[in-house]
Amino acid sequence: MTRIIQISDPHIVPHGQLAYGQVDTAKALTDCVETINRSLPEIGPVDMVIVAGDLTDFGTKEEYQRFCTLMEPLDLPYRAIPGNHDDVAVMRACFWDQSWMPLEGPINWALDFGDLSVIGLDSSVAGKAHGHLTDETLCFLSETLDAQEGSPTIVTMHHPPVLTGIEKMDIQNLRDSKQLKKILSGYKGELRLTCGHVHRNIVTSFGDVICQIAPGVSHAVTMDLRAGAPNCLTKEPGGFLLHEIRGGIMSHHILVGRYPGPFLFYPDK
After folding, report:
1. d(CA 137, CA 141)
2. In what order do the strands lie in the sheet with 209-213?
3. What residues contact 30, with CB distance under 8 A and at least 6 apart?
4. Using CA atoms, how far apart are residues 214 and 51, in angstroms rounded to an integer?
5. Would you call 115 helix, strand, or coil by DSSP?
6. Which secondary-structure segment (H or E) carries 55?
7. Residues near 124 by beta carbon (within 8 Å), at least 6 away in sequence
8. Helix or strand or coil: residue 22?
9. pLDDT tens-digit series, residues 57-98
10. Contact 222, 165 (CB under 8 A)
11. CB–CB of 8/214 below 8 Å?
12. DSSP SS3 for 129
C-alpha cells in the first residue's frame, strides 16, 4: 500500500527574517519535519514526500539552501515542484544532483510505485503570481498518463485550476485550464488532482476528477469570502496531507505540532 505525504507552501525566507513580517516559516517547516518523523510509526510506512510549490518566498539561492538544510532531518525522500514564489533556474541549480530534476525546461517529473503513480507538474510563470501549463507540460502529462494504462494516479501542481471564493487567490489561479480538464477527465483510471497555493484544505471537483488543495505548512490564507476582501494571512496551525491507496485514493489532513492525547474514549472498559 503506497503512501505519499504532501506538504505545501513552506515559504522559506533568509535567516533572521519573518515571512510578511509575521511568520517564522523556518520553525514551521522544522516542526512539520519533526511531526512527520514522529508520526511514521503510526501512519507509515510512507514512500515519499512531495512539496507542492513555494519552497521559498523570493526564489533566492540562500532561501533554497536554507530549505534543503531544514529538510535534511526528514526520514523520507522528497521531490518538489515550483510555485509562483519560486525561481525555476535557481531551484534547478539547487537540486541539480537529484535524479528527478530535469536538465532544462519545466520542472515536471513522474514516479510509478506500482499501485499508485505520482506526476508533478510545473505551473509557474516567471515573474507572475498566476499559473499556466505550457504545451510541453501538457504533452508530458498526456504521454505519461497514456503509458500508465489506467493505474491510480495523483497529479500535483502548485496552482489550483478552480475558484475557491477567496477572491485575491482566485485571480492567481491556473489560467487556460480547458486542455488540462480534457486530459484529466479522459483518463480511464482513478485520478486525484492535488495543489497548493491557497494554504487551506479545500476539496472540490474539476471536470470528472477530485481536486484537493493542501493546507500550508505554516500559515493559512485568511478565510474571507467577501467580495473585495483584502489579501491576508491567519496564523492557523500548519498541516499536511497523507495520500494512500485504500481501495481507492484516500487523503488525510494531519496537523503540524504536538497536541494532548491520545486518550482512550472509555478508559474503564
Report:
1. 6
2. 109-112, 117-120, 153-156, 191-195, 209-213, 202-206
3. 70
4. 10
5. coil
6. none
7. 53, 82, 83, 84, 86, 88, 131, 158
8. coil
9. 999 999 999 999 999 999 999 999 999 999 999 999 999 999
10. no
11. yes
12. coil
Q: What are the domain boundaries of the chain?
A: 3-255
Tens of pLDDT, residues 158-184: 999 999 999 999 999 999 999 999 999
Q: What is the reported pLDDT for 149?
A: 87
- The full DSSP string for 155-190 is EE-SS-SS--S-HHHHTTSBSS-HHHHHHHHT-SS-
Query: What CATH number matches the domain at 3-255, 3.40.50.300, 3.40.50.1370, 3.20.20.300, 3.60.21.10?
Result: 3.60.21.10
Q: Would you state the cell numbers that stand for residue 241, as one nine-digit string? A: 496531507
In contact, 207 and 226? CB cutoff 8 Å: no
Tell me the C-alpha distance between 51 and 156, whole Å.
9
Task: Find, among 213, 240, 247, 212, the residue nearest to 4 by Cα.
Answer: 240
How would you classify residue 87: left for phi > 0, otherwise alpha for psi between -120 and 50, otherwise beta? beta
Q: Provide the grid cell at 169.
A: 487567490
Report pLDDT digits (tens) over 217-263. Answer: 999 999 999 999 999 999 999 999 999 999 999 999 999 999 999 99
Give 230: exposed, middle or buried? Use CB within 10 Å, 0-12, 13-18, 19+.
exposed
The one-letter amino acid at 255: L
